Amino acid sequence: MLAEGKAVAAELDYQQVGVSKPQYRMTQLIQQTGGQTLTIPAAAQQTSIFEIPARPFNLARSYLQFSYTLPAPGAAGSYCASWSDFLPVFDQIQFYTRSGVNMADIQFAQMAHKTMLKYETKLDHFLHADSSTGVLFRNNALVNATAAFRPGCSNSNQTVAAPLVPPLVGRSVTASLNYTEPSYYVLGEDNKALTQYFIVPLSTFVNTAFALNKDMHLGGQLAYIRFTWAPASVTGLVQSVNADPTNINTRWAAQAVPSTVSNLSLFLAQEIEESIVAVLQEKVLSGGMTYQVPYLYSLTQNLTGTNHNMTLRFNRGHGQRLRKIFYTRTSAAPSDPSLIYSTSNQTYQDGTWNDRGSTQMQLSYFYTQLDNRRQQEINVDCKWGTAGSAIDYMLMKPRLRDTVIQNLNMHQYNWGWIEGWEDGTYDKDSQVVRSGLSLDTEKKWDIFSVYATAANINHYAFAVIEREIVVDAAGVKII
User: Fold this and answer.
1) Which of 133, 329, 324, 116 is nearest to 205 (CA)?
2) C-alpha dihedral over 386, 388, 394, 395, to 10 degrees?
3) Rounded Cα distance, 164 and 142, in Å
4) Rounded Cα–Cα distance for residues 381 and 379 (Å)
5) Nearest to 259 by CA among 29, 82, 35
6) Are 172 and 164 contacting, i.e. CB atoms less than 8 angstroms apart?
């Protein structure tokens, strides 16, 4: 008997339902000035602004496409190189309305991308990606093919004469995993320009409105996406003449000449199903629409010495709820330009540190506080082997399940810490679930860290705060 209020087996369920689903057309947008090409100075920024049409769109289904060329070094035996596990080319990315409502503002965009992307990318998604995106793709050969290749770099059985990756300064160690570890570097050919081709889904800018997989209608207002290009000196490397790029003692220099961007386009996923467009327009005019979005606050602080303390405060002015905080650090005075984005904290089983060109990255232990209450009962030991017990990895391991960070070595190569207050028990779309710590009262978060030797460190914290974009007949606002 088929009774109301009871679960019915699929074989007995004859109820028919309609389906409402989006249909998108990729609309090619060109930056407002400059066409599809621009030159990036060695020591200055450039900007690209795209105007977003008033029709409903989905940012998470949209793509940014461009080619980025580092010029030839100018001498035989020299190579160009760049990073491939994140986008080093942007300093800042913004999404805002014509009236000035800022719906996303990613500052220190390189570090935000590097810090969060691997932790927020599922391994299955990563393994189905390829190098066409230009960012976060797999290595492609055996890790032991050439012993001098660096941890996490794209590995190959090619000879020294045709290397695929530049080494980092430091000890000789192979990558951790065959095939499934990200490629960290890309290397050009002998005395040739290095051109990287990017097809970047905006959804890779995780924990922002760019990753919101929802149709957005801004009530007829125009919006803009602004990309601030980083100087060429922090997006590319040049190797000295006749130095072996697989030698661990090879030194690199920052790019000192302009780079070139070409074929620059934003492919915007615009809704073309007229019935959906009509419903969205009616909602805005009749009572308004509310989009729940993650908003990223980027903070940095330079500290020196052995004991470091970074304090963050959040209140209702920042948003509604504090979801999570990503923390990492880099050396403020790296010995080699190839290390400017390095967050490594690798130690070996014999207890020695991976020198990688600087002893200033030797984080021994830390602990955090929320509203002056310790979040860990003990100091979180970050060392491994005879020197320590890698407690940081054990505490992080539940968060790392099914992500790109697959083992202890990869965690240490890409060292970071995540503290989160999301409700993980729901079985719903996380983009519509309200979660996190209420900011009706101010929240204070601290991290206390201790380094093995006096260190000059740039600390980075990226706070994900839940906000709401409200669109009605009066316009757009964010609360």
Assistant:
1) 116
2) 180
3) 13
4) 6
5) 82
6) no
User: Phi, psi (5° rounding) for residue 394?
Assistant: -65, -40
Question: 418 φ, ψ to 5°?
Answer: -120, 130
Cα–Cα distance between 270 and 90 in angstroms, integer?
25
The one-letter amino acid at 363: L
Residue 83 structure tokens = 């990073």
> How far apart, in Å, are the Cα atoms of 394 and each of 281, 349, 400?
49, 16, 10
Q: What DSSP designation does 339 have? A: G
Whether residue 36 contacts residue 50, with contact meaning beta carbons closer than 8 Å, is answered with no
* pTM, two decimal places: 0.89
Torsion region of 77: left, alpha or beta (phi above 0 gives left; psi -120 to 50 gives alpha): left
The answer for residues whose C-beta is within 8 angstroms of residue 180's C-beta and 6 or more apart is 123, 126, 127, 138, 406
Nearest to 151 by CA among 132, 128, 167, 164: 167
Listed in sequence order, the residues at least 6 apart from 115 whose beta carbon sits closer than 8 Å to its beta carbon are: 326, 328, 343, 416, 460, 462
d(CA 193, CA 185): 15
Contact 476, 99 (CB under 8 A): yes
DSSP letters for 104-141: EEEESHHHHHHHHHHHHSBHHHHHT--GGGSSS-B--S
Domain chopping of the chain, boundaries:
23-478
Q: Looking at residue 159, what is its pLDDT?
A: 31
Rounded CA-CA distance 131/264 in Å is 18
Coil, strand or helix at 396: helix
In terms of phi and psi (left: phi > 0; alpha: psi -120 to 50; beta: otherwise), the region of 69 is beta
pLDDT for res 449: 97
60: left (phi over 0), alpha (psi -120 to 50) or beta: alpha
pLDDT < 50 regions, the chain: 1-2, 140-173, 348-353, 355-358
Cα gap 102→90, rounded to integer Å: 18
Closest residue by Cα to residue 321 from 205, 479, 476: 479
Give CA–CA dist 455/436, Å, rounded: 33
Cβ contacts of 326 within 8 Å, gap of 6 or more: 115, 116, 119, 416, 417, 418, 461, 462, 464
Query: Phi and psi for 355 in degrees, rounded to 5?
Result: -70, -40
